[in-house]
Every structure is written in C-alpha cells, then in structure tokens.
Amino acid sequence: VPPLYGRAALVTGGSRGIGAAVAVRLAEAGADVAVTYREGAEAAGRVAKEVESYGRRALAVRADAADPQAVAAAVDHVAAAFGRLDVLVNNAGMGLIAPLDQVLTADVERMLAVNVHAPFAASRAAARHLGVGGRIVTIGSCLADRVAFPGATLYALSKTAMVGMTKGLARELGPLGVTANVVHPGPIDTDMNPADGPGAEFQRGLTVMGRYGTPDDVAATVVHLAGPGGRYITGAAIAVDGGLAV
Ligand code: NDP
C-alpha cells in the first residue's frame, strides 16, 4: 500500500513549478490531491490529469493568494469535496528582487498578502480539518537563512515569517497530532527562477554543489514530511538548497 493511500492533500499554487511536482509526487505516494492556481487553469488541469493517472482523485480550484479569504474558502471546499484533509502544502508564492527605493507600498502589501497572509489563512482553515497524522508543509526560501545578494529585503522578510509561523503552528497543533514544517529551497529551475536566466550563473556559484535543483528535489522532501517518515519532525526548517546556506 502506498504511504499516503487514503489521504487527501491540497497544494497551493500547484499548476507549475515546485507546486506541480509536489502534487504529482503526493499522488504517486497514494494521496488524492487538489491544487489551487491563479490564472493557469489549463496547466492546473494538466496536473490534475497527471494526479488521476495514478488512480487518485484530483481537483483544480482557482484561488488567488492575494485574497487570503479566497484561499481559506478553497481549503474548506477541498476538505468538503474529498470528505477529509490530511496534508496542506503552502507553496504559492511570488518573488520580487528590487532595490529598497524601488519597492512600492503596493508591492509590500501584495507580497505580505500572497507570501504571508495566505499561508496563515490556509493553515488556520486547514487546522479545522486536520486530524491525528495531519501535516502542514510550507515552502519558504534559502533566503530565510542567508541573504546573499542585495534587493531581496522584502522577499526575505516574507519567507522568514514562515519560520515563525511554522514554529507557532507546531506548538499549537502538536497536541492534536498535526506537524508543521518549512522547506527552504535554493535555486530551483522553474518559471520563477529559470536555470538559464540572467542571474543563474551567480546563483549556481552560491551553492556548494554548483548547480540548480529540480522541482522533484523539493517534492521528495515534502512527500517525506507528509508521509510516515515525517511523524516525529515538527517545527523544523529543512533546506533543499544544494548547500547555499552553508
Ligand atoms: P513558479 O512561478 O514557477 O510557479 C508558481 C505557482 O504558484 C504557479 O502554479 C502559480 O499559478 C502559483 N501562483 C503564483 N502566484 C499565485 C497567486 N497569487 N495565487 C495562487 N497561485 C499563485 O514558482 P516556483 O515553483 O519557483 O515557486 C514555488 C514556491 O517556491 C514559491 O513560494 C517560491 O517563493 C518558492 N521558492 C522558489 C525558489 C526557486 O528558485 N524557484 C527558491 C526558493 C523558494 P499560475 O500558474 O496560476 O500563475
């Protein structure tokens, strides 16, 4: 029997990149999987088809993370549709690299809504559905450990908030049998951070392995945390960053 057989999972921002890989690997491990997306309905539909190819139930739900209430409503919708919720993966996120003076108030508000408020709202909504064995895994960033270049103040601020949120969730939900952890990816080849982009060589040089990681590299750790192997890991921050934070 696959390790997550009979479990139901929700991955925010699951239409592309890391979230799509996490959704597919959770299905491979036996879970029914829902993904949210903002505008990539077609891509989300393809991920849902791939989930179904493992014989699992799939759902694709539009929920813009800039609207945290919509994300919380998506959590309730998915729990009702699957009849349960066991795993929440807070993955949807935005990046912004710009000098301090060029960061607008509207940028701050959007970044805090998408990268901070939405994961909080989703976690709070999920906590009402998760039972013993429940899991919350949040995608942070290696920038929460090491800010190795200028222009990342706002993004690092938002991702470091996930460390505190995770510890708070671990403390609050541990007695209910629910774990909460944050995974900090390094440079991962996605639309957000393509391995052939202008900053790619520089980022390779920051790692000790000298290369980018893949979405599956991050997904493997998320699936481990979501599965039986994660049962005694909570409140932890786990780097999947090729040694960037070393
Ligand atoms: P991508 O840009 O490749 O994919 C982003 C995914 O999130 C898409 O499915 C997108 O949906 C969805 N999404 C984006 N904004 C919103 C929103 N407002 N509401 C709902 N869904 C949204 O990103 P990555 O896969 O690279 O990043 C995933 C996470 O990993 C993010 O939290 C990011 O900060 C983090 N991360 C990434 C790193 C990297 O090097 N790639 C490094 C460290 C952290 P749609 O298709 O609809 O736009």
Describe what this molecule looks like in 3D.
InterPro entries: NAD(P)-bd_dom_sf, SDR_fam. It comes from Allonocardiopsis opalescens. GO terms for molecular function: oxidoreductase activity. This is NAD(P)-dependent dehydrogenase (Short-subunit alcohol dehydrogenase family). Keywords: Oxidoreductase. With 246 residues, the chain is of the alpha/beta class. It has one domain: NAD(P)-binding Rossmann-like Domain (Rossmann fold). 42% of the residues lie in helices and 14% in strands. The protein has seven helices and seven strands, in the order βαβαβαβαβαβααβ. It has a seven-stranded parallel β-sheet, sandwiched between helices. α1 links the parallel β1 (8-11) and β2. The termini are far apart. The protein binds NADPH dihydro-nicotinamide-adenine-dinucleotide phosphate.
Unreliable spans are none
Number of strands: 7
The CATH topology assignment is: Rossmann fold
* Beta-strand share of residues: 5-15%
List keywords for this structure.
single chain, 246 residues, alpha/beta, Rossmann fold, binds NADPH dihydro-nicotinamide-adenine-dinucleotide phosphate, NAD(P)-dependent dehydrogenase (Short-subunit alcohol dehydrogenase family)
Short description:
With 246 residues, the chain is of the alpha/beta class. It is built from seven helices and seven strands, in the order E-H-E-H-E-H-E-H-E-H-E-H-H-E.
